[in-house]
Automatic annotation (TrEMBL):
Belongs to the NXPE family. The lineage of its organism: Eukaryota, Metazoa, Chordata, Craniata, Vertebrata. SUPFAM superfamilies: E set domains (SSF81296). Keywords: Membrane, Transmembrane, Transmembrane helix. The keyword Membrane applies. GO terms for biological process: nervous system development. Pfam families: Neurexophilin, NXPE4_C. This is NXPE C-terminal domain-containing protein.
């Protein structure tokens, strides 16, 4: 009996041991299976992430100059459109689906755009004009002013906004522009203004030249005036209107003609005032799908539209709004101290850092020599050092450069000062297509005047809108300019001569001998941002297709410049458009020629058509893009 019991215990013990071993084997197998599945999932995620990363172009690394103001404290009450709730998200997604989805714009890209154009609003109702920002009472101070500075250092300025009661304002939204300048040497540099959203504004300057300097700040528009601009853009986009000229045969071999009102078809923002139903003739471009419409003529068919011109302006400002808009482009009182700037021994280190970030600070004369220093006080003389040549996709820092003796030194890339001979050599064997407005036409006019053998042809067209053509047979140069299409504020011109930029680009083969440049801005200031964005994205699509079929084509975009200060073309409107343009082309692989800072900080009287000195400096950068060194 004891033997049986012992045998049973031994059997049970053996069975228990075998069960444990079997359990451990199963658990080990399951653990290996689980581990393998986890590794497989991680590998799949890495493959997907890598694929998405390869499909997206990298943004250019930020320039060190753009980080000069990074040390400034971000306002605690900073509001950003990026933080949206579910309703806003649904609204944004709906807008993307309706307008931007065809261009491949994601919700993330759309929100980045909204953040770029976001502008702070007053936090209270403005019951009278005296509550608005007063340029006479607003002041600025230089923070921690020192007896002297070195080139490459930063200078910080704080602007304190006050109303007409001399009370400090507690909200932001004012539009200021600032510059550092010295008249004796015709030197100036653009200042980066940051809205602290509490009535204060921080301005950051880079000190780039040896010598002396002073600070200047202007109130372009008060925050209350900006609200006027916003309201009229949102509700009053038809305050600029156009004429359409219809012509056709009449009875007894006579000729009939009618002039009617025309504008963009956009069924909101006041553009719906033209009418509905059969009120109008509509002209839909088959490629852009944009619609231009004119009031239907009484005795001629819609097909009889022959000419287009500017119609007129409607000033619908209220009396209160007119008073708010009067306080425009006013100088601000502040610290007029003379800043003493001496040469820095570490300037070479600064420049090397700029070079690593795709920025340089050298301007060379014709023979490649650095600008000579005059009496040790005028010019920032930099040592010869290795710098990167200009190439597409470069980031534009703030500041993008500076003036000294009326010569612009670029911080974007290595630019040169071009003589007439160098200009001809650079343009040799080039087909150059310019499209845009009259500020782009200034470039065309410069080349015709500057290049001796470049002769303009008479195409018997309206000069304001083109097309214009100049040819240099000896150097095999052909230069084209034409307006960017409707809407266009111009004298009477043939509708058939008005082509959209995207359609023109789609009709060009591209290649290493072709240079395409365009701009888009002043004629769009009264229209909704969505309308302008749609136009820009259509052009972006055309540029992407061009670079796909001919990647060695040079594409240059001229930004908006300063100049307008009224309800029909304010700098604030232009700044908003400029941000959209940069947003759309930031990752496309094109050159962006920043003229905003060049026109904002120069000493010449502001004009939408910059003076010859500015144009010459713009051309130097343009040619440096076309013929980089």
């Amino acid at each position: 009996m004891d033997v049986i019991i012992c045998f049973q215990k031994h059997a049970l013990k053996k069975s228990y041991k075998e069960s444990r071993e079997h359990f451990h084997r199963e658990r080990s197998w399951l653990w290996k299976l689980f581990t393998g599945l986890c590794i497989l999932v991680v590998m799949c995620l890495l493959v997907v992430w890598s694929y998405m990363g390869n499909g997206r172009k990298k943004h250019p690394s930020p320039n060190i100059l753009s980080q000069h103001c990074a040390g400034l404290q971000k306002p605690l009450n900073s509001s950003s459109p990026a933080g949206i709730n579910s309703k806003d998200s649904e609204k944004s997604q709906s807008l993307i689906n309706s307008i931007y989805s065809e261009f491949g714009i994601s919700l993330e890209d759309y929100l980045r755009l909204q953040e770029a154009v976001h502008w702070a609003d007053p936090d209270r109702s403005i019951t009278n004009v005296s509550m608005s920002t007063s340029p006479a009472h607003t002041t600025f101070i230089i923070e921690n002013l020192k007896k002297s500075y070195q080139t490459g250092e930063k200078l910080f300025v704080t602007v304190h906004a006050k109303d007409f009661y001399n009370k400090s304002k507690s909200y932001g939204g004012d539009f200021f522009q600032a510059k550092l300048f010295w008249n004796n040497t015709k030197a100036s540099v653009f200042g980066d203004v940051k809205d602290m959203l509490n009535g204060s504004y921080s301005v950051c300057f880079l000190l780039p030249w040896v010598g002396e300097a002073q600070v200047a700040v202007r109130l372009i528009h008060s925050s209350e005036a900006v609200q006027v601009l916003k309201r009229h853009r949102d509700t009053d986009s038809d305050r600029v209107y156009f004429n359409g000229y219809y012509e056709g045969p009449g009875p007894s071999k006579t000729r009939l003609s009618e002039t009617v009102m025309c504008n963009v078809k956009w069924d909101k923002n006041g553009l719906e005032h033209m009418g509905t139903g059969d009120c109008c003739c509509e002209y839909k471009d088959p490629h852009t799908e944009e619609i231009w419409r004119c009031q239907r003529p009484k005795s001629l068919p819609c097909s009889a539209l022959v000419y287009h011109s500017m119609g007129g302006y409607r000033n619908r400002l209220t009396e209160k709004e007119k008073k708010l808009m009067k306080q425009t482009n006013k100088d601000i009182n502040g610290d007029k101290s003379i800043i003493k700037i001496f040469s820095s021994k570490t300037i070479g280190m600064l420049v090397n850092s700029l070079t690593q970030k795709n920025s340089t600070a050298q301007r060379c004369r014709d023979a490649g020599k650095c600008v000579a220093q005059k009496r040790g006080t005028d010019v920032l003389t930099l040592r010869q050092y290795k710098i990167k040549k200009c190439h597409p996709g470069l980031h534009t820092p703030v500041p993008a450069g500076f003036y000294l003796n009326d010569v612009w030194t670029s911080f974007v890339c290595s630019t040169r000062h071009f003589t007439t001979q160098m200009t001809s050599e650079c343009l040799k064997d080039k087909q150059i297509y310019m499209m845009g407005d009259s500020t782009m036409r200034q470039w065309f006019e410069f080349f015709v005047k500057e290049v001796p053998n470049l002769k303009q042809m008479d195409l018997h067209v309206q000069y304001q809108s083109g097309p214009l053509l100049a040819v240099d047979v000896e150097n095999n140069i052909d230069l084209h300019w034409r307006a960017h299409g409707l809407p266009l504020r111009t004298e009477k011109t043939a509708v058939a001569d008005l082509h959209y930029i995207s359609n023109e680009i789609n009709g060009l083969a591209g290649g290493p001998h072709m240079v395409i440049m365009f701009n888009l801005g002043p004629h769009f200031t009264t229209y909704p941002l969505d309308f302008y964005t749609h136009r820009v994205l259509i052009i972006r699509t055309a540029v992407l297709a061009l670079l796909q079929r001919a990647p060695d084509t040079t594409v240059i975009i001229k930004t908006v410049n300063t100049g307008y200060k009224d309800i029909f073309g304010s700098d604030w409107y232009s700044l908003q458009l400029d941000k959209i343009l940069r947003w759309a082309f930031q990752d496309v692989g094109v050159y962006i020629l920043d003229v905003w800072q060049m026109t904002a900080c120069h000493y010449s009287k502001e004009n939408i058509h910059p003076c010859p000195v500015i144009i010459k400096n713009e051309i130097d950068i343009l040619l440096s893009f076309i013929c980089p060194v």
